[in-house]
């Protein structure tokens, strides 16, 4: 489960800290107490920034770091594709071996494939991704000038 | 049944005891011996209990208190026999004071609902107060929050000291003439603290408040005498004391059980029923609506026999010795901070700790890879974590089959965890 990539992101997180955003959400994982506060900022339909603060296990914190690295700079449709692919991988109960196409989409996030075998830890890995999805929906809802693409 | 390990007097002969628990022989993660240190969550089950369950289903299975056929009579005798055993185990003055529920949570919810629907002098309403503590399991917090919300009663609580004990310095201000009920845990599930029952009960009795004791972490580990502690209600669960899941106990004083109204209605709890109204069976049946957990009660009876055979005093002495050893060894682990009492005095066999800034989930996962099962999280006692400013803890908890070698394995495991995340 603890791939080197995950430990690297845990020890040296990308984009940590709260910066200006269009929407902010606070998500908790009630079974273990992982928490994240996450903000999104959009520039048109480009993910301009995802900033976050949180506390929790290495899986939840590394996952937020990977999210930041992957999604910032992408357009909304691409970002959603990454989120949905990551969700599919995490819900695979360890049955899914990522193929090349999936690896192209997920990059560092494929390292979490092993986590999907541990039902108690899947929520840790998904915490920031669900927070991002929620924050994005709020940001788009509050900014009707932005086009909804999904 | 005690062994003579140097320096640790009072240990049980765990080599013999462990033979009764088949699961303790399991190997996990490619041949690692299971080190089961999650006993505060649930205990393992001895063969004697498993056999009682099997025999019940293979030979006697029937519904209770209804049929006139042989199996129905046998099942009833076994179910009611389990009540006798539990009554003796907690030194209840009467077997009719033992109500079977599905777990301690249901037992506590049952009391809260009896009091919410009760007439004077027991009735909890907007002019009265309910007292709990910051140390409670959620199952002894939420039922009282619900009762307070529904009746308008005020919910108050005792805070905690820095070393994991109840802060009773304001005992007389927290428990007042308005207090109708005081509910607290005998032993903390997260910190292991054993609470000073006498002091709280004395104050509660001064103001005629009912006393409810959550004995979920006490009944498995020490002599529990409901008369000695002078409570009005005592709740505990079967699965933490070698019994099956799905069976809990609420002991209550007979006169209260006679006076207080039923909560769940249904079969078995009635005397007569017409379309207009019903009258109720005497306690305990008044509080046992529907087909009860029969096999589970029989299993709990077997568990009580098993524990009594070893002796609750002997089990308490074993755990006290082991806890002292564990506290001492854990304090030598760098960056480890125990959340709760730092000695074995007035403390049960559950030890919570944090290890530097390594999250307990990571601690638990890496321990698991070494075959060591601990609990991580807030242990259904989130207010305790908030009190000490931590998101969660790692908890190791022992039982009658736990050994010093398992404490050593835990300490070595924690060293490995530190290096892994270091």
Task: Give a written overview of the molecule.
The complex is a heterodimer of chains A (150) and B (422). Chain A is an alpha+beta fold and 150 residues long. Helix content of chain A is 45%, strand content 18%. Chain A contains five helices and three strands. In chain A, helix 1 crosses helix 2 (58-71) and helix 3 (76-90) runs antiparallel to helix 5 (119-142). Chain A is globular. Residues 143-150 of chain A have low confidence and may be disordered. Chain B is of the alpha/beta class and 422 residues long. Chain B folds into two domains: 14-33 and 311-421, Aspartate Aminotransferase, domain 1 (Alpha-Beta Complex), CATH 3.90.1150; 49-309, 3-Layer(aba) Sandwich (Aspartate Aminotransferase, domain 2), CATH 3.40.640. In chain B, the strands form five sheets. A seven-stranded mixed sheet of chain B has the order 4-10-9-8-7-5-6, sandwiched between helices. Chain B has a four-stranded antiparallel sheet with strand order 13-14-17-16, covered by helices on one side. A two-stranded antiparallel ribbon of chain B has the order 1-2. In chain B, helix 4 (104-117) packs parallel to helix 5. Chains A and B meet through loops of A and helix 12 of B.
